């Protein structure tokens, strides 16, 4: 027994019955929401790890031209690491916050 070839795992979204105003109202929904958030955080972390490995590979392959050839991978990696990870709550927002879009005034 195992996973069928070509089958993808389907992740449920956040629970429908979770109330952010009163999270302790339904303890089961609160635990499902916590599991959902942890699962999404782990997915983001693993995506960043994959991109980091691609950057390492590109750096080794391209050698002296890595600044031009790997730039797009480095930007993807840096964007993927914004706001993810564990224990970043006490760092300055500029170091780990979401990308701030410039607004035209």
TrEMBL record:
It is a peripheral membrane protein. It is found in: Mitochondrion inner membrane. Its main location: mitochondrion. One of its GO terms (cellular component) is mitochondrial inner membrane. Keywords: Electron transport, Membrane, Mitochondrion, Mitochondrion inner membrane, Respiratory chain, Transport. PANTHER family: NADH DEHYDROGENASE [UBIQUINONE] 1 BETA SUBCOMPLEX SUBUNIT 10, NADH-UBIQUINONE OXIDOREDUCTASE PDSW SUBUNIT. This is NADH dehydrogenase [ubiquinone] 1 beta subcomplex subunit 10-B-like. It comes from Salvia divinorum (Maria pastora). The lineage of its organism: Eukaryota, Viridiplantae, Streptophyta, Embryophyta, Tracheophyta.
């Amino acid at each position: 027994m195992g996973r069928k070839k070509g089958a993808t795992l389907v992740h449920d979204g956040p629970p429908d019955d979770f109330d952010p105003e009163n999270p302790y109202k339904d303890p089961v929904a609160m635990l499902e929401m916590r599991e959902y958030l942890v699962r999404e955080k782990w997915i983001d972390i693993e995506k960043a790890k994959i991109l980091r490995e691609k950057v390492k590979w590109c750096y080794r392959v391209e050698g002296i031209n890595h600044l031009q050839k790997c730039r797009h991978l480095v930007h993807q990696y840096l964007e993927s690491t914004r706001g993810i990870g564990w224990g970043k709550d006490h760092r300055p927002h500029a170091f780990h916050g979401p990308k701030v879009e410039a607004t035209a005034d």
